[in-house]
Each structure stands twice: as C-alpha cells, then as structure tokens.
Amino acid sequence: MTDLTLTGVSRWYGNVVAVNDVTMSIRPGVTGLLGPNGAGKSTLIAMMAGFLAPSAGDIRLGEAPVWRNVGAYRDLGLVPEREVSFSYLTGRAFVQATAELHRLADPRAATARALAEVDLVDAADRPISTFSKGMRQRAKLASALVHEPTVLLLDEPFNGVDPRQRMHLMELLTRMGEQGRTVLFSSHILEEVEQIARQIEVVVSGRHAASGDFGAIRRLMTDRPSHYVVRSSDDRGLASMLMGLGGVRSVALGRVGTGEAITVEVTDMGEFTLALPRLARSAGITVRELAPSDESLESVFTYLVQS
Ligand SMILES: Nc1ncnc2c1ncn2[C@@H]1O[C@H](COP(=O)(O)OP(=O)(O)OP(=O)(O)O)[C@@H](O)[C@H]1O
Prior knowledge:
The protein is α/β, with parallel strands linked by helices. The chain is built from 11 helices and 14 strands.
C-alpha cells in the first residue's frame, strides 16, 4: 500500500522535457532523489504528490492512481521547496489550517501531535516569520504530517538549513522511515543523501540514471568503461599518444557533433582524467574540451565525484 510506483512517467512544459520516461518504485524507508539543479526532481515530486498531471505514464500508490484521487491524497504528505506564504500565521495556526482542510475529526489534537512530532511545541505560538529556516522547514513538515500520511515527500528540505537544524531534520526523517513510512526527499548534494537514505534514485536531465544504495551506485559508475570526447590543438598527435596510456581501451578520431574530435573509451576514469592533461602538456598540446560523450551514467559519475 505504501509503495509509490512510477511507470513510464514523462512531463513536458511546452518544448522542455522536464521528466523523461521514468520508471521506478519508492518503498517504505528513506529514499534520496539525487540530481543536479534542473534535473526534474521538483517536477517528479509534484507528480508523485498528485499536484501535477504526468504528460505520459502512470503513478500509483499501491494500486491506486495518485492523480485526481482524493483517497490517495489522504495518504500523501508534501513538504514543498517554496516558503510558507502565510508567514504572519503562528506555527500552530498554519498547521491547524491544514488539519481543517483535511477535515480531520479533531484538528486541534492532530495539530498538537504534529507539532510535538517535529519538536516545535515551544515556538508554536510565534509567527512563522520569526522562525529560523530550519524551524520553518519543521513547520512545513508538521503541516505535511498532520493527517498522518503513510508517504512523505520533501523537496530539497535541507536547502539553506544550518548544520544543527540539518542534523535535527535528518533525525526526524530517519525516525519517520523507521516508523514504516515511505519517505522520499530530493537533494543535489550527495553527502546529504548518503547520510540518511537507504536507497538512492539518481535523475539527470529528466532521466532516471541510476538506482541502488550508495555503494551500488558507486560500483555502477566505476565498473563500466566510460567514453570521453576530447578536442585539442592537435587531435592526431594526442590520439596516438593516448593509445599507450594506462586505462585507455580504445581511441578513435572522427566527427563528433559539429567538428572533429577524439573519442576515448577508458576503463579507469580517475587515472585518465589525471593523466590526460599531463600528457598533453608534455607534448605542447592544448586540451580544449574533455567531456563525457553521453548523458547517462558517465555524467552522473562526474556529477557525483564533483559534489
Ligand atoms: N512551470 C514550468 N514551465 C516551464 N519549464 C519548467 C517549469 N517547471 C520546471 N521547468 C523546467 O523543467 C526542468 C526541470 O525542472 P525541475 O524544477 O523539476 O528540476 P529540479 O531538479 O527540481 O531543479 P532545482 O533543484 O533547480 O529545483 C528545468 O529545465 C526547468 O527549467
């Protein structure tokens, strides 16, 4: 019942394909949705929460579709990235308004329980405008939890939150996962995801690029050969030298995109990206471009090692 299943989900805005044919399952426990800015994380989360219709494909909570299904909304809680618009409200009034919107039997009691759950009881009667960023995130979390959803979706919950509050928020999410909830949060920072997510789903350029625990994703990235496109002041000279370089499996010269370039298949990208500039410099060749040649796991790996 608490599994969220996405099948062939795409979403486009005019000509922009924000999410491209994503199929994945989110299970109980904490899952991290990792990807660089603009990867499509917010769009995916809005669709999973039933706030945005997929342009194609299907999202289900258990057996039930989430789009236009009031029953599914009762099981879903969303912590959006944007700030609370009504920050003149107290934390309590804000959370209670959500409880009333859900038509809960006892909105006051539900509000008190949600505020206690996120540790916001002492500050609950202050306006949200006086809260720190971390406290505002917790107020949004209380509002998302007030109807006790089984699935909790959080869009960049750690953005701008100071380290102490971040730890606090991480503990809260871990606890929610341990309670058997399905918790999914997005982030563009690997170490955040690594710290609390049992499962990591990587999205890059709208595509589902990798899935697994942190170790599995690392292995996936490093075990397979990667392809690079290299452009330089002397492609022919550089290509012949690259053939003798450790970790290089094949070298080809030819047309790539709008011009000539070297395409290199490497088995050890770490060694290759260190050795290439040295080799070029020793021969007086200028490297103009070094880029992964496709949009899939290579670029994810480049992204992962950069962050
Ligand atoms: N309402 C919209 N209209 C047009 N394009 C949009 C809209 N919302 C998102 N996009 C585009 O869709 C792509 C994915 O955006 P999205 O916000 O889902 O990514 P993201 O991974 O959440 O990024 P960020 O971390 O920067 O918020 C981007 O290219 C973005 O510019």
